[in-house]
């Protein structure tokens, strides 16, 4: 089995020149390159991701607080409606002989309107929470993906530049070697 350093540097190929060469075999060096890229992405992306998640958490908590305030307002409205209902019930007892059915109708309408208001407020709260959660997840995904792609492209560009540089040096060494053979 080859030594790990043999995967990157091979010494003795041009032993008379005393030089070494980098191994450009992608299959031999690719897992190590990928682990380095992933390590860099995790190291630098962790703080950014934590900051983004903290900001989203604060926004979601703010939305929850607003929803709780709306809920408290709805509960207060419900209490007011209950007080009004009690008042209507007292009036119903007084006017029972004159129009029992109309009072019952008003009572039902009042309860239905209050229930509908509470249901709409609860639905609005749930939709707002779901929307904010989805939006937060999508924003974090997009930002993490953009940062990962930018870092990966930067790494690839630097690798490609080094590889092109290495190929040029290798070609020039080959030309010099053939020139030396001709002159000998």
From TrEMBL:
Q: Name one GO cellular component term.
A: proton-transporting ATP synthase complex
Task: Show the InterPro entries listed in the entry.
Answer: ATP_synth_b/b'su_bac/chlpt
Claim: Zinc-finger is one of the keywords in the record:
no
The UniProt transmembrane annotation reads 32-49
Asked if the record carries the keyword Plastid, the reply is yes
Q: How does it sit in the membrane?
A: Single-pass membrane protein
Write down the superkingdom of origin: Eukaryota
By sequence similarity, the record places it as follows: Belongs to the ATPase B chain family.
* Its job: F(1)F(0) ATP synthase produces ATP from ADP in the presence of a proton or sodium gradient. F-type ATPases consist of two structural domains, F(1) containing the extramembraneous catalytic core and F(0) containing the membrane proton channel, linked together by a central stalk and a peripheral stalk. During catalysis, ATP synthesis in the catalytic domain of F(1) is coupled via a rotary mechanism of the central stalk subunits to proton translocation. Component of the F(0) channel, it forms part of the peripheral stalk, linking F(1) to F(0).
Q: What is this protein called?
A: ATP synthase subunit b, chloroplastic
The species this protein belongs to is Liparis loeselii
**Name of the gene encoding the protein in the UniProt record:** atpF
């Amino acid at each position: 089995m080859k030594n790990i350093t043999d995967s990157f540097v091979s010494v003795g190929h041009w032993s008379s020149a005393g030089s070494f060469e980098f191994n450009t075999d992608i299959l031999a060096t690719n897992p190590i390159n990928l682990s380095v890229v992933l390590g860099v992405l995790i190291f630098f992306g962790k703080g950014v991701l934590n900051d983004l998640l903290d900001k989203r958490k604060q926004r979601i908590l703010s939305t929850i607080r607003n929803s709780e305030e709306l809920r408290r307002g709805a509960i207060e409205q419900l209490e007011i409606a209950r007080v009004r209902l009690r008042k209507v019930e007292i009036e119903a007892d007084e006017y029972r002989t004159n129009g029992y059915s109309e009072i019952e109708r008003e009572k039902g309408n009042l309860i239905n309107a209050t229930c509908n208001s509470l249901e709409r407020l609860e639905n609005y709260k749930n939709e707002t929470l779901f929307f904010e959660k989805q939006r937060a997840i999508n924003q974090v995904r997009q930002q993490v993906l953009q940062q990962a792609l930018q870092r990966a492209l930067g790494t690839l560009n630097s690798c490609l530049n080094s590889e092109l540089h290495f190929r040029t040096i290798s070609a020039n060494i080959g030309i010099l070697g053939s020139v030396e053979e001709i002159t000998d």
